[in-house]
Design a protein that fits this description.
The complex is a heterodimer of chains A (163) and B (102). Chain A is of the alpha+beta class. Chain A contains four helices and eight strands; from the N terminus they run ββααββββββαα. In chain A, 22% of the residues lie in helices and 41% in strands. In chain A, strand 1 (7-11) and strand 2 form a beta hairpin. Classes of the chains: A alpha+beta (163), B alpha+beta (102). The A-B interface holds A 3-4, 6, 8, 17, 19, 21-23, 27-28, 30-31, 37, 40-45, 47, 103, 105-106, 124, 138-139, 141-143, 145-148, 151-152, 154-155, 158-159, 162 and B 9-12, 15, 18-19, 21-23, 68, 70-71, 73-74, 76-77, 80-81, 84, 86-102.
């Protein structure tokens, strides 16, 4: 059976990922709610999840680490802003350290994950959005006036081509 | 010492310095006078930016001029572009995992 394709779209400063799963919505939603589930899939082959602690409720947080090649570590902190089981999870996504401190030097994003049910199957639509224009500006500022906008256009084209 | 471009832009002061240099090449003294923090501290940030390949320092007589090499930032964009493969793999794994649970 062929896999469903991931669709990637950009809309201004938003990155939208969409993919279908042949499973009931309640089950797909559940896979997001505990470390026991997340440890099986949130990481990748090269970047497995090496630490996970979760308090799945509005106001709670999820602290995790992805460990990459050459001992690289990427610590993340998700702060849950809205949860509607089994259809919606919204969290603020921060780069963090191993003690769970946010790295405010990097821009944060708000990730809105919607679970849409269709004929017993589930479509996940995940939208990542920079939390403020200033946040996005942090990344783009120095480049915008000096040619990186061209590179950004290339990225946009690349994302469009590889949809 | 070589550093990567991400270390360069990880610090807010370095991003500010880079933003300023993106507009014009500056004398090191002018640049250090522009910030509230100590000259020594600014110099340290510029040294790190140089090690990241994000700025170059040229000597002209007694003066040193700093200019930005923003093209190095393409590495950030390339890094972000890899995310597509990253997310695709993550969702493939979720797909597989869902088959194994009730």
């Amino acid at each position: 059976m062929s896999k469903h394709q991931l669709q990637v779209e950009t809309n201004g400063s938003e990155l939208i990922l969409t993919r279908q799963f042949d499973a009931l919505r309640t089950k797909v939603f559940k896979a997001y709610t505990s470390c026991e589930h997340l440890k099986h899939w949130w990481g990748t082959r090269e970047w497995p999840i090496s630490y996970c602690k979760i308090d799945f409720r509005v106001g709670g947080q999820w602290h995790y680490c992805l460990s990459g090649p050459d001992g690289m570590e990427s610590w993340g902190l998700a702060l849950y802003k809205d949860i509607k089981e089994p259809e919606l999870i919204v969290y603020e996504d921060w780069f963090a350290d191993k003690d769970g401190n946010k790295n405010t030097g990097f821009p944060s994003t708000t990730v809105r994950t919607e679970f849409l049910e269709k004929d017993g199957k589930t479509i996940i639509r995940s939208t990542a959005k920079y939390n403020s224009p200033e946040d996005l500006k942090k990344v783009l500022d120095m480049g915008m006036e000096t040619g990186i906008s061209e590179t950004m256009d290339k990225l946009e084209e690349y994302l469009a081509e590889t949809k | 010492m070589r550093r990567d471009v991400f270390q360069g832009i990880a610090d807010p002061t370095r991003r500010a310095i880079l933003g300023r240099l993106a507009q014009e090449k500056l004398n090191l003294t002018t640049l250090t006078d522009h910030y509230d923090i100590s000259r020594q501290s600014v110099t340290k940030h510029i040294k790190i930016l140089e090690q990241c390949g994000l700025v170059v320092i040229e000597k002209k007589g007694r003066d040193r001029y700093v200019s930005a090499r923003p093209e190095k930032l393409i590495e950030v964009v390339r890094w972000a572009a890899q995310y597509r493969a990253f997310f695709a793999e993550r969702y493939d794994r979720l797909d597989e995992y869902l088959k194994t649970i009730e």
